């Protein structure tokens, strides 16, 4: 379960670290936004490819 959570949150966490923002400063906003954009793009691409 820990590995799945790490993979799911990795894109947003990577961006947060590159911007130099701590978890306390972020409040999950940047990480959530980046993850939504990243995984939404993957889901849209998958849907358009297979459906």
Brief description of this entry?
This protein is mainly α. The protein is built from 3 helices and no strands. The mean pLDDT is 93.
What is this structure's SSE topology?
Layout: H1 2-18, H2 23-26, H3 29-50
Helix pairs in contact: 1-3
Q: Distance N terminus to C terminus?
A: 30 Å
Helix count equals 3
Query: Which stretches are low in confidence, meaning pLDDT under 50 for 5 or more residues running?
Result: none
Mean pLDDT: 93
User: What general outline do the C-alpha atoms trace?
Assistant: elongated
Radius of gyration: 13 Å
Strand content: under 5%
Number of strands: 0
Major sheet summary line: none
Describe this structure in words.
The chain is mainly α and 51 residues long. It has three helices and no strands. The chain is elongated, with a radius of gyration of 13 Å. The model has no long low-confidence stretch (mean pLDDT 93).
Keywords:
51 residues, 0% strand, elongated, mainly alpha
């Amino acid at each position: 379960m820990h590995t799945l959570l790490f993979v799911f949150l990795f894109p947003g966490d990577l961006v947060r670290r590159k911007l130099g923002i701590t978890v306390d400063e972020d409040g999950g906003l940047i990480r959530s936004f980046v993850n939504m954009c990243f995984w939404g793009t993957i889901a849209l691409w998958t849907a358009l490819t297979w459906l």
